[in-house]
Amino acid sequence: MSLVFWPNFKFEISPKRLFLRGIMEAYQKPFVEIAESPESADFFAIPFEYFFVEKYAPAYLSSIYDAARRAGKKVLLFDYTDFVDRTPRLPPHAIFFRVSVYRHHQTPQEIVMPYFVEDLGKTISLHQNKPECATVGFCGLSRYGSRVQALKAWVKRRGFRSLLALRGDAAPSVHAGGIVWRRCSLRAIRQSSAIETNIIERSSYSLHRDSVSGDPQRVRAEYLLNMQSASLPLCVRGDANASQRFYEALSAGRVPLLLDTDCVLPLEGVAPYEKCVIRVPHNETPQLPERAARWHVAQSPVSFIEAEREAKALFQDFLRLDRYFEIVFDREQSPYKRILYER
């Protein structure tokens, strides 16, 4: 079932999804209210991950589409998976909430939502003073487990990029996996003397029991210490075209150094990202350290701390999922008012 409905049903979350149950415990009030009848509902909704339903229960999906059409309602779909390269097949009355999309692929029916992440502001404090030098921190998956794995990834990437080119994709290069972009980013960061770095590279994904290497608590503590010590956490996409670390950094009151791989952020145009995010286009990856250093030098001691406060406020006011859905479903002020409520 989609995590969006966890506050409603409190369903069991697999212990293999490390730390997720604790994250969800922060959301006790439902994001949506379950209506007593179709007639009294504002929307119909599929309470499961869309791409899994599309694959394994297409008849069920079609039946909900048909029922909503007969009732004159729109259907809300949700997907928390990494399947950014899959294109949803949506009827005109469907609205698709997903955690990532490519800007050059996004349709008017697709709305980007944040990840559910731990609020690190509860354990990580703002800097008391502006550091003398910018410290770019990174801790995460950026290495292949073996040469064979690296070769397989290269072959797959080349084949997929060729396919995208044949299809006339507007930006085939951004479809490269997260490890590719992370390695390119780290290479640029390491070559610069204008910044300090705190980099921990891993060859495994650390938020799942089956893939984490080592004791999960120790690995997580190492990650949190890396976040705390950074003035500018490097945030680069993973398998999805989005970064969980980006939301964690904001929650901790850190200014993210975000590599923009043609990504769309939640509530763009409403949330004031420009106040506390250093956003570097993917075709300017070599300039990551220069942009970080330039931003740091431009800050006074006061404006540096203010940017961290803005980052924390951005998370609390726009990107916590409860606040996010309050904004999205506000009938009068929602930036998606036309898509959601106009028939």
TrEMBL record:
Full protein name: Exostosin GT47 domain-containing protein
InterPro entries tied to this protein: Exostosin, Exostosin_GT47
Signal peptide, first to last residue: none
PANTHER family linked: EXOSTOSIN HEPARAN SULFATE GLYCOSYLTRANSFERASE -RELATED, PIN DOMAIN-CONTAINING PROTEIN
One GO MF term attached to the UniProt entry: glycosyltransferase activity
Domain of life of the native organism: Bacteria
Residue ranges occupied by any Exostosin GT47 domain in the UniProt entry: 195-290
Organism per entry: Candidatus Taylorbacteria bacterium RIFCSPHIGHO2_02_49_25
